[in-house]
Amino acid sequence: MANAFCFACLGRPLLLGKGQEPVAVKTRKALAIMVYLCRSGGLASPREALADLLWSGTDRHKAMQSLRQALRQLKTAEEAGSIDVVRSSPGHVQLDPAVFSSDLTRVMELIERGLAADFHEAEELWRGDFLSGFEDIDPEFSEWLMVERERVQNEVTSAAFQHLNQISTEDGGVRVEAGGRFLLKIDPAYEAAHRVLIRLYKKLGQHERAEQQYQACVREMRLHLDVEPEPEPETKALLADNEFEQSAPQSDQASFDAANTLPNSESIIRLPEISILSATIADPKLADALNLKEEIVAGLSSFRSFDLYQAEYFGEENLPAPTLVKGHDLGSYLLRFRHNGHGSKVAIQFEDRTDGRIVFNEIVDLNMWESLQAAASQTISRIHLYATGKLRNPGNNAAFARWCQAEALMWDFDPQSDFKALQLLNDLEKRHSNFSMVFSAKALINMKQLTHYPIEDRELGLAMDEILSLCEHAVLLDPWQPVNQRAYGWALIQSNMSDQARKAFSQAGRLNSVDPANLMSVAEGLALAGDVQQARNKAEFAMSLFSAVPRVFFEYYSNILFAAEDYETSLQFIEKTSLKSMSGLTTRIAALICAGKQDEAVEVLNRYNDRYSAIIQNTGLGQQDPDEWGKRVNFFLDPKTRLNYNRGVDLVKRFFFGDRACF
Questions:
Q1: CA 86 to CA 229: how far, in whole Å?
Q2: Letter string b/e over residues 483-509, b meaning 16 or more CB atoms within 10 A of that residue's CB
Q3: Cα dist. 18→12, 83, 100 in Å?
Q4: What's the gap between Cα 182 and its chain centre?
């Protein structure tokens, strides 16, 4: 069967049938499903994620109904084009990788090869911005599209520059010229591409063409940019008669890397390696088993904590034999899938390749799980915890290991641990200035200091606008890292920007929908920003993914329930926490008051007076302005919820700060 193409680079994407003729698809959202899937890990996505992305303003039930209608439209289009590419299960939608391809995939293949003919063909295929004309189909989808469009352009441009670092004239400059023209097809005002061509013409001795290219650069920049820009000094200097060094072309690669946060060889962060082996399945009865494998692989990818390598084999006789390898200091692992034709069982084996030890070997019976996502999440969590747990040994000095050590310290929720974490993060920043999570982690620590245990010397900490800038820098470096989006969301919450915060938290939830810790933090952030129903949905799903719920997440869930005005259930969860957080105590008191239990609220304060007085003294809260603390501890942005929570804040201030608190 001929491949089906979804032309993601066209002004409007097209679905081609068996005869390579365009096939009509009834709605843009139906076609957008295919484009979103083609940019997703494993070409797959949970149904809920698609519904939330394309019908964000509709309640979940209606959104899922609309999704089903869109999938039926795709099936109708497939039948008309004699193709079969979309696989659909109760919880999952996927494109068949054996059938689906795209012009964007073809462009990347051509650019990776990088011959002159390849650049010419890629230029013909590039017909405009990724998914042009689809910006208005849904606000959430538009947000995703803007980020993804930039990502597509960066991926293609980066791949092209791999062949343009050195100006070679052995072929008369044909390849370099084709590469430069291709880059200008993507962005006619891209100054670095103009410099590539100017350097080429200078090296060929074609000074007049170099001058013409410079004038074209000036013209295109003025035509396509909003301001009246002047070429950079480096571009102007290219026209000087004595200018041209053999190493000069590398400066454009360097400037591209700096502008687009593409790491050079010295700043690449190495990650643990996981090789994935599985049998190719042709039996449609084993679709659930294949979906489980794809869900696990996509989930591991979403953590952004592993270098994944995937292979398939045909038949048991070709199964690779166990092999020990000399792994690097971050770990090398092997993940094996064996699909059992009896029922819905999948054998999953995870091995540490450095010593050949089987970390775990389990038989997953999908009939015993509520959902495919829940089954996959358990395996993903076991792998992630094992691999990152080994890296928390302070003796490991690799960059990612240092990050794991800092992250573990941050979960202690302790001033001393955060101080140690900051030391690790500052050292990482010196060695790897493009390591985005360093900046989001520093922002999170400083936000904790502002709210929960302010340091006495505020000159050592950051003000809120500085924290927000750190988060913005982290997102700029890597907008696809969930922790960056979460940190940005929290900074926006504390800056009273509810709409922007909702977008950041929603993006973090989409980027990793299998990590219950990520989902719980996202859910709490959404609740604080005022999106209560979405918050409850994500929190309930996150709770179903935990094998054992950490007590800290009961406080998150309690805040979500408080925002939903379910005060009794909020109390049930906050009472399960560790009683170490002043914010947790305040939520409990506020919920009691809102539930009409004022006397019980006072009784709780009296009962735990000694415990929380010690916390106030040990964390430095006693030296802080109580009214400033009261503002910081109330994260709720919805006016009614904020007012209700302040009832608890006022009582806690009166009890612990007395005359120092103003009302």
A1: 47
A2: bbbbbbbbbbbbeebbeebbbbbbbbb
A3: 20, 6, 12
A4: 29
As a three-state string, the secondary structure of 181-215 is HHHHHHCCCCHHHHHHHHHHHHHCCCHHHHHHHHH
The pair of structure tokens assigned to 212 is: 């013409």
Query: What is the C-alpha separation between 20 and 103, in angstroms, rounded?
Result: 13
Rounded-to-5 percentages of helix, strand, coil across the chain: 60, 10, 30
Asked if 243 and 237 touch (Cβ cutoff 8 Å), the reply is yes
DSSP per position, 258-291: HHHT---TTT-----EEEEEEE----GGGHHHHH
Residue 527, H or E segment? helix 516-529
DSSP character string of 376-442 = HHHHHHHHHHHHHHHTT-TT--SHHHHHHHHHHHHTT--HHHHHHHHHHHHHHHHH-TT-HHHHHHH
Q: What is the pLDDT of residues 66-92, one digit of tens each?
A: 999 999 988 888 888 788 888 888 778
Which residue bears the tokens 């604080």?
Answer: 528
The set of residues, in sequence order, having a beta carbon less than 8 Å from that of 143 and lying 6+ positions away, is 503, 506, 507
Q: Is beta strand 273-279 parallel, antiparallel or unpaired with respect to 332-340? A: parallel
Contacts of residue 32, Cβ cutoff 8 Å, sequence gap at least 6? 54, 131, 134, 137, 141
DSSP 8-state symbol, 311: E
Which residue type sits at 567? Y
pLDDT tens-digit readout, 572-630? 999 988 777 788 899 999 999 999 999 999 999 999 888 878 777 766 666 667 787 78
Average pLDDT of the chain, as a whole number? 82
Alpha carbon distance 33, 47 (integer Å)? 10
Q: Name the percent of the chain lying above pLDDT 70.
A: 83
SS3 638: coil
**Predicted TM-score of the model (pTM):** 0.62
Structure tokens at 527: 């609740």
Which residue stretches of 8-161 are H helix? 28-38, 47-54, 60-81, 103-113, 116-125, 139-161
Contacts of 212 (CB under 8 A, 6+ apart): none
Cα 381 from Cα 571, distance rounded (Å): 29
Please name each of the domains of the chain with its CATH number: 1-163 (no CATH), 173-262 (no CATH), 273-390 (3.40.50.11830), 439-660 (1.25.40.10)
Per this entry, what is the length of the chain?
Answer: 663
Q: Which residues pair with 89 in a beta bridge?
A: 92
- Partnered with residue 277 across adjacent β-strands are 311, 336
424's torsion region: left (phi>0), alpha (psi -120 to 50) or beta?
alpha
- Dist CA 167 CA 252 (whole Å): 11
90: exposed, middle or buried (C-beta count within 10 Å: 0-12, 13-18, 19+)?
exposed
